Structures are given as structure tokens and as C-alpha cells.
Amino acid sequence: MSTPLRVTVWNEYVHERTSDAVAKIYPQGIHSAVADAIRQHLGSGVSVRTATLDEPDHGLTEEVLAATDVLTWWGHAAHERVEDAVVERVQRRVWAGMGLVVLHSAHNSKIFRRLMGTSCMLRWREAGERERLWIVDPSHPIVAGLEDECFELEHTEMYGEFFDIPPPDEIVFISWFEGGEVFRSGCTFRRGKGKIFYFRPGHETFPIYHDANVRRVIANGVAWAAPTGCRYFGEGRNIPEPLSPIAGEHVVDESLHRAK
Amino acid sequence: MSTPLRVTVWNEYVHERTSDAVAKIYPQGIHSAVADAIRQHLGSGVSVRTATLDEPDHGLTEEVLAATDVLTWWGHAAHERVEDAVVERVQRRVWAGMGLVVLHSAHNSKIFRRLMGTSCMLRWREAGERERLWIVDPSHPIVAGLEDECFELEHTEMYGEFFDIPPPDEIVFISWFEGGEVFRSGCTFRRGKGKIFYFRPGHETFPIYHDANVRRVIANGVAWAAPTGCRYFGEGRNIPEPLSPIAGEHVVDESLHRAK
Amino acid sequence: MSTPLRVTVWNEYVHERTSDAVAKIYPQGIHSAVADAIRQHLGSGVSVRTATLDEPDHGLTEEVLAATDVLTWWGHAAHERVEDAVVERVQRRVWAGMGLVVLHSAHNSKIFRRLMGTSCMLRWREAGERERLWIVDPSHPIVAGLEDECFELEHTEMYGEFFDIPPPDEIVFISWFEGGEVFRSGCTFRRGKGKIFYFRPGHETFPIYHDANVRRVIANGVAWAAPTGCRYFGEGRNIPEPLSPIAGEHVVDESLHRAK
Amino acid sequence: MSTPLRVTVWNEYVHERTSDAVAKIYPQGIHSAVADAIRQHLGSGVSVRTATLDEPDHGLTEEVLAATDVLTWWGHAAHERVEDAVVERVQRRVWAGMGLVVLHSAHNSKIFRRLMGTSCMLRWREAGERERLWIVDPSHPIVAGLEDECFELEHTEMYGEFFDIPPPDEIVFISWFEGGEVFRSGCTFRRGKGKIFYFRPGHETFPIYHDANVRRVIANGVAWAAPTGCRYFGEGRNIPEPLSPIAGEHVVDESLHRAK
Asked: Which of A87, C85, C218, D203 has its CA 20 to 30 A from that of A19?
């Protein structure tokens, strides 16, 4: 494809400005680290912008979303401050084909919970323990380029099962934690024309988004979530005539599929 | 099991009181026909009550839901009149293990859309055309007792693809329509501890809920959606100690899983 | 159901007769322990017999299989000694609706590999290490009666990912191992009208089949795998006439679906 | 990617040489039409060769397979003439990452049946009737470029449910047939590192592989089935040390994962 993939990296950008410890790890904000990872791996194939909570419309106006092929989402402390109108706008844009990469504590974001229909609850513990992410789908493009059958993060926040999500369409990684838990760490879902990748690693006080493997997986996830699929939905109606001469009319409830 | 399965049959109960044509087919309301079908097949194994839109809390108080193992839902004209607080109450009860059987036009109900995370849009046409429901999972308990590989309904409202739902956990039936469409007519989903069965047939102006095969499938769906699973979720925390002596604490985000 | 579920417990029965250590744990053979577990939980609802490698036809004649609703399979040292004709007989019986519960090292049995279509390879280590089985589908009947969100086995053989199976229809348990691995420990699959449950725990030198939770899950798995579904397949043809008057004939390639 | 995708198009090439009717539609053989479709859409990104039944090793030597990224398969009259040794070679190559696109009557090929583990039976009728393929996963790259929500083939052989395959990982198309049947016409599966796409359309006496939409979908399927995923499997062992100092050894049962 000659036109670059248009990526918007969203970050609530709260911890980095209120905690010295976090600011030391992510001096430009977590969004900068995530954006760098995507640029590092996808290069000229991608055009990346960032958006944060404090901007008008959280930086996610209709115009920005209409010009976004894949959105990545990081939030933790301020899920409730995200306006419902923006959440609904993002949801409709996902339905119309925009990819969504949901990172770490964004499991509890409004947008992820609305798209899943579940509580998205999980177990957690902050103990800086070791995590191993095992590949359970070696065929998946999201693990492209990984050298081994698993990779390790030395100090992480633990997330454990039961992770209250719908059964994922695909499970790509399962994590092992030193303290005794497991977690479905890389999961994909489809909603409408949009593809969603949830990826567990990340935290504000561990330098997870500087890890080489994590950065590659995020970039792979963005590439995988890029819009593909047919042209139909959202480009207006195009309904074939019925084969048999049947009275009545074809109607499609598709007001929600207008964009894209 | 010696205690009967507690089933609540919900119906918006609008068409039957405003249209003579509908009243002729369902003189006691669609809920009565659905409740009869369940009693017919599950007999003494089931205790069935009904609830409708006009009752206080739409008949779905905390007490009623706490005493409901499986809820069936029919709605069409009045989805928007269902209060959000009740919808959220039902959703949490599904997460805690209550089964949900969603019938026909309830594809567009608030509760189904919230649990799916998608628009749940579809194509439709009222032409009284022929439908064939083909079994595509012959191993499933929901098709127990069906004699043939498909069954027919002579006059139906057409529902066609694309049906905007998440990829179902299981597809049990696919419908063929005389006018040229197909539809995933019997689909299962899990959300939390709750099981959900969407079943397409039904309409207010066709006597679909008097059809022998439809009645059997609805009863099978109720039996399948009955709560099963482990005791843990919702009965409070019960977290094993970590194996390794790790500083920090186990915390579970489970406020949403209290009931049941 | 008034007629009891007919279960056949198969065991290659080699280790128990060649090793004192194994004989001490399973003096009557692993099949006796498995059969006991099933009887303990399913009581009068079940009629259990056993069969072993050294019997004629490995104890799995056409007559035995025709009178078996669910077959459980344990093998380890002698997979290659199972005759292909018997394997094919079992496979066709699964297609026709017989349930199959595959235990531990039977991941590498001929029958499991034929039904999966993959190598079924995995990582393993005998170190007597601790295992935790986490429930990742709390709604599933296979976890009915379990008290907690996970259960532990103190000394086990490790099985680790990548477990080369097709993506399971349902993942019920994921195991955590002390040495650093994870494993999809409880998985379901459907093949034709038959349901298959793979359950990891077990080993000839650890008393796994005396563990209360393991015994319950095996019994649950047997109950879940019991034949359900429609009557059609295997009871001969029953093909509806085409709706439109189309020249040509309906033919079904169903020679393989005769039994049951 | 700068190196082109290496595609091998396999055809049993029997009908075209024994029937004038077939030869008129496919004068160079069905493989030529399929190869052309792939070249038409993937252009310089692909390098296509063909192989047929009558060649030594059916044209599928170890060398050819080692140099094949995606294999397409068409067979109908001569499934039994394909040697088991070649079938096993293809199966292992799929496990190691080669994509496989299975066309029409190859549902009954040895290779597809071995990879599925089921009978792969279906209903069929030759009546030259109309088929509509409805898109049920609009997000999928396999439907990229299709203009409408369905496409039609005017004269086809009917394939109907129940199609005895494992529940597919993804269902992309569902077909409607004029005579009253439905069929899961576009299905994906993963086996090991390999991706498999089954696509129904095609027949020796209908010019299906000259249809613009069918040609596009086949090319999309080839692109989708291209090897992706991690580097590990098949490039030798690379096992991380256990975290805890545990006696015993890590062993991997991976003799089957050597190639690629």
C-alpha cells in the first residue's frame, strides 16, 4: 500500500505529570514511547499522531477519528473522566472498520468494556515479579519476528485470571507469573468491521514500553488491526434484488454503519 | 436436579394489545405462548413466571432476578422504553450466571446490544416467505429431539446477513430464505458466568411460537442456558496464597460479581 | 434420563504391570481409578466398564463401541501398539456421537492425533513440580462443583506450550507450573456429532487420579461429553424436497455417519 | 516484502483431459485458471508454479514443498490416487507454516480430511442452480475489494449443510442456494503454524474460476494464508532456563516441526 497507515496513539497522560517516578521512565509520556515503537517497526508505512485526555474532545474529534485507521489506547487513573460521547464515537468508528489496540490497564476503560459487554475484571498485584509471555498461536502475524517461543519481562505488575472477557476470537499469548497466576495476555476480537487487539504488558512504573519484544508486538498489533475487508458496509446501501418475485421491501438497519 | 429451574419469560406486550391481528394469534400475549412451550417440554423440571414492560421495574426487580435462573426476552416496538437501570441490572445478573434466551426482534433490545458490544443490525423484509433452519452443529443439546437436518417455517419475516454480532461462540442454526438471504439463526455467547442463546424465529403476526420445532428449540435453549459452572465467582473472594513469598497484595476487581 | 450413561474406560495398562512404583499407586490399574471417579460422582446415572490394550480388539469391538456413550482414553508407553483398524473404528464412532475424554499423555495417542489433524506435540519435564489449574470459563459445566477459582496439584509432570492442537472450541483450564510454563489444560473440541474433552492432569507415578478435584472434573467431562444433539445423522437419510422445482437429485455423502 | 510469495497451484488434472465439455471451459486445465487469478491480483508480489497428479511425486517433492509458501489444491475424481506419503509430506509442511487453500471438491481430498479430523461429508446436487455468497465477516482480508455484501454465481453445483468440518476458526462466507440449502462457503482453520482457507466455489463444468469475484477471493486467500508468525518453531530448540532451580530437564517433542 502506498498511502501510510494513519495511527492515533491515545494516552490519558496523568501519571507522567503527577509522579516523578513515572516521569523518569516516560519523560515525554507513555504515548511518546508507544508512538516511537510503532514508528520504529512500521517506518514509512505509518503516520502516527498522539492525543490525550486534556485536549478538547480528548483529542478525538470526528475529524481525527475519520482520519485514523488504527487507534491505540492507554488509560489507568482516569477512565471515568473520558466522556461518554467520545466513547460512543470511538465505538461507532470501530464498528465502521477502525482498528483498536488496547494496552494494559485499559482493560478497564469505558471503550473496551462497551465493546466487550462484560465487566473486564481481573486479578492484579503490584510486586514487580517476573512474567513470561508464551506464544500459543505461532501462526499469527502479531508474533512475527519474535525469536523464541516465549519472552520475559523481569519486573511487572501481575494480572491474573479469571479475566472477565468474552471468549476471544484468537488467543496469541498466555502469561505466566512468578507468584502463581496465568493470564490471557494477547487476545483478538472483531466488532463490526473493526479488529481489536488487547495486549497486557505495560505499566506506568515499569519501563515495559522500552522492551524490544513488547514494542515489536505493539507494532505488529497495529499492522494486524489495520482496516481490511469488503467495501460495502458504510458506503451506503447496495442491496441485490430478491431472486424470487416477493412482495415487500428490503430494508437495512444500517444507520450505524455510515462512516468509513 | 430436584429443585426446578426458575425461568422468567419477559415480553414487552405491546403489539398484542394494540393490534387485532396479533391478538388473534397470541390472545394471552407472546409471553404466554413462550411460557407454555417451556412448560410443555421441561415439565416439572421448571417453574415459569412472566414479566412485562408495564409492570413496576418492568417486572424485573432485584428480587425477581435473584430468583431467576434463565430469563427469556421478547421485544420489538418498545426497546427504548426499557429503563437503563433495569438493563444494567439484567446485565449484571447475566455476568453472575443467569442464562438469557433472546428471541427474534430482541436482537435490537438494549440488553442484547449491551452484552454484544456491536450494533446488532441486520437486513429484514416482511414478505411472509418460507424459511428453512439448517442444523450446523448436530452435537449441540439445543437441537436435541429434532428429527431432521433442517426444519421449515412457511411464512416468516426475513432476517438477513450481515448480522452485526461478534463471532458467536457456537453457531447452531443457519437459515435459508426464499427471497435470497441467509442468517445465523441460532447463536450462543458467554458473558461472565452467564450463557446467552439468540434464536431468530418469531414475529407478532406469524404464529411462529405455536410451531412444534420452534417450541422445542426454545425449551432446549432454556435448559442449555441454565446456570452451571464453578461456585467461586460471586460468592466472595477466595484467593490462594502466592506460591513464592512475594511482597504485595492480591486484589480482585470483582465488585461487579457479587450476586448469585 | 432414566437409562444410565454407558461409559467405557480405556487404559493401555502397561506401566502398572511393569513398575512397582506405579503398581503401588494404582494397584488395580489406572482404569480402575478413573472408573471409580466416574462412579463416585455420577452414581446410578452411569454404567461403567473398562477395556485394555491386551484384550482382543483392545476391548473395543464394534459391539462394545455401539454400547458406549462416552469413552475415556489413557495411554502413554504403547500408543504405537494400538491397531489402526481400532483407531478408525473409534474415530467413526466419535463422528456418530460418542463422547471422548482424553487424559494426560493420551495427547499423543493415535486417536487424538487423528481427530485433531495436528502433531499434538508439547513441552514436558518430569520434576514433580507444583501445578495450578486456573478456571478460565467459569460458566462451563465441566467446572461444576469446584469451590475455588483454581486448584493445585503438588507434584506433577509439567506439560508446556506450545501445545500443537487446533484452536480449541472452548478453553476451560489454563495451568501454571512452578518451573515457568503455562498450558491449556482443559480443552473441548467437536468432531461430527461427537464431543471431545482433553484434560491434562494424570501421570503414572503421581497419584493424580486420587485427587478430589481431578476426579470431579473427569466425571464432569464425561457428563458433558454424553451424546446430545439431533436425531438425524446416522439414522439414515431424510432429505426435504427442494423448494423450487429443480432438475437433479439430492445426494448425501453420508456413508460415514451410519452408526448410532 | 521484497521477495515474492512462492505459490504452488495443484490440480489433479483429470476431467480436463477426459471430457470435451470441461476442456472447453479450462483448455489449459483448472490449474492454469487458478494460477492466472493469483497472478492477476498479486502481480509481482507472487511467483506461481503448478503441479499435477501425473508428475512424479504428484509434482510435490520435498524440494518443491520447501520452496512453497502457499499451496492451492483442486481435486475431484482422483482423491484416492494421491499417495499417502505425499499427503503426509504436505501435512507436515502445513504444520511448519505453509498456507493451504482448498478449493471446492477438495473438501473430500485426503489432505483436507487429515487436517480436519472429520469426514468432511456434505450434501450436493448438480442442477446448475443459482448461488449467493453472503459475507459474514466484513472485517476479513479475504473479502478485501469486494464491492457488495454478497456476490452471485448463476449456475453452480450445490453444496449443502451439514458440512462435517470442525467448527471453523472464522467463517467468512455463507452461501444461499436456489434449491433450498445453505453452506459455510469460506472457512479458515489453523493447524500448527499453517493457515488453511477452504473456499467452496468451483466445478469442472461451470466456468467458476473465470468469475471476477471468485478470482479475487482466491487471490486474497493466498495472500492471507502466507506464512506469518514467530521464528521459533522448526528452527531448532531454544528453550529458556526454568526460573526456579528445578531438577529434571526440558524436553520438547518437536521432531515433527523441523521444516521451514
From this structure: A87
Please count the helices (runs of H) and the strands (runs of E) in chain D: 7, 10
Of B134, B161, B180, the CB nearest to D161: B134
3-state DSSP assignment of residue D166: coil
Contact between B175 and B185 (Cβ < 8 Å) = yes
Residue numbers in chain B where pLDDT is lower than 70: 1-2, 232-260
| Contact residues, D window 232-251, toward C, CB-based 8 Å cutoff | 233, 239-240, 242-244, 246-251
- Is the Cβ of A83 closer than 8 Å to some Cβ of chain B? no
The gap from C-alpha A79 to its chain's centroid, in whole angstroms, comes to: 15
Average pLDDT over every residue of C57-84: 97
State the Cα–Cα distance between residues B164 and D148, nearest whole angstrom. Answer: 16
pLDDT value, residue C9: 98
Interface test with D, best of C95, C164, C206, C232 (most D CBs within 10 A): C164
Cα–Cα nearest to B34, from B58, B50, B14, B52: B50
Q: Which amino acid is at C165?
A: I
Contacts of B192 in chain C (CB under 8 A): 138-139
Burial of A43 (0-12, 13-18, 19+ CB in 10 A): exposed
Place of cell 394469534: B25
Report d(CA C134, CA C145) in Å as an integer. 14
pTM, to two decimals: 0.93
The answer to whether C136 contacts chain A (CB < 8 Å) is yes
Q: Which domains does chain B possess?
A: 5-116+186-232 (3.40.50.880)
Distance from CA of A164 to the nearest CA of C (A): 9
Per-residue confidence band for C242, with pLDDT thresholds at 50, 70 and 90: very low
CA D153, distance to chain mean position in Å, is: 20
The answer to whether the CB atoms of A166 and B189 lie below 8 A apart is yes
User: Which residues on C lie below 8 Å from A181 (Cβ)?
Assistant: 134, 176
Q: Give the position of cell 453445483.
A: D157
Q: What is the pLDDT of residue C3?
A: 86
Using the Cβ of B36 and the Cβ atoms of chain D, whether some distance falls under 8 Å is answered with: no
- D232 within 8 A of A138, measured Cβ to Cβ: yes
CA neighbor of B157 nearest in space, from A36, C17, A251, C126: A251
Give the separation between CA A30 and CA A209, rounded to whole angstroms.
Answer: 8
Kindly give the pairing relationship between strand A46-52 and strand C70-74.
unpaired
Show Cβ contacts of residue A153 under 8 Å, excluding neighbours closer than 6 positions: A130, A131, A132, A133, A201, A206, A208, A211, A214
Q: Is B161 on the interface with A (CB under 8 A)?
A: no
Chain B residues in contact with C140 (beta carbon < 8 A): 228-229
Q: Which of residues 167-226 of A touch B (CB under 8 A)?
A: 167, 169, 178-180, 189-192
| Gap between the Cα atoms of A48 and A38, Å rounded | 8
User: Which residues are CB-contacts of A146 (< 8 A; sequence separation ≥ 6)?
Assistant: A135, A213, A216, A217, D230, D231, D232
Strands (E) across chain A are located at 5-11, 46-52, 70-74, 99-103, 123-135, 150-160, 170-177, 182-191, 194-199, 251-252
> If you average pLDDT over residues D212-229, what whole number do you get?
96
**Separation between Cα atoms, residue D188 and residue D173, nearest integer Å:** 10
Find all residues with CB under 8 Å of A249, minimum gap 6, and list them. Answer: B125
Number of helical (H) and strand (E) elements in chain B, helices listed first: 7, 10
What is the distance between the alpha carbons of residues B32 and B35, in angstroms, rounded to a whole number? 5
